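Duplicate of #3305? Posting structure anyway:
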């Protein structure tokens, strides 16, 4: 129960307000994970609600920043089990069906 639940990532892209934070493990999430909520800027209603999670390790402390193409650069930390805490970066794109990521190693 060590995750700080305050919002640590907030950005505006594609007429959407995005919020991301760390959440402790619960239910089908065996490790801490990152909820990401997309809010329509015109209606102020939730447009999408996603989780960045893994059955093998934790994710925490997210943030993001969009580019001119509407793609979002994401940064967060990953660790747990045999994985030491590591910084992870990636791209979340409305033009792709998946997110690309890269992690550092020690």
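Output from current build:
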């Amino acid at each position: 129960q060590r995750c700080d639940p305050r919002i640590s990532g907030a950005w505006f892209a594609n007429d959407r307000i995005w919020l991301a934070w760390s959440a402790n493990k619960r239910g089908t999430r065996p490790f801490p994970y990152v909820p990401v909520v997309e809010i329509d800027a015109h209606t102020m209603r939730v447009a999408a609600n996603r989780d960045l999670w893994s059955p093998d390790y934790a994710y925490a402390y997210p943030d993001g920043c969009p580019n001119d193409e509407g793609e979002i650069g994401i940064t967060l930390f990953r660790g747990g089990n045999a994985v030491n805490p590591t910084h992870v970066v990636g791209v979340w794109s409305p033009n792709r069906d998946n997110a690309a990521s890269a992690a550092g190693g020690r």
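Confirmed duplicate; merging threads. The two ends are 26 Å apart (CA to CA). The chain has no helices and eight strands.
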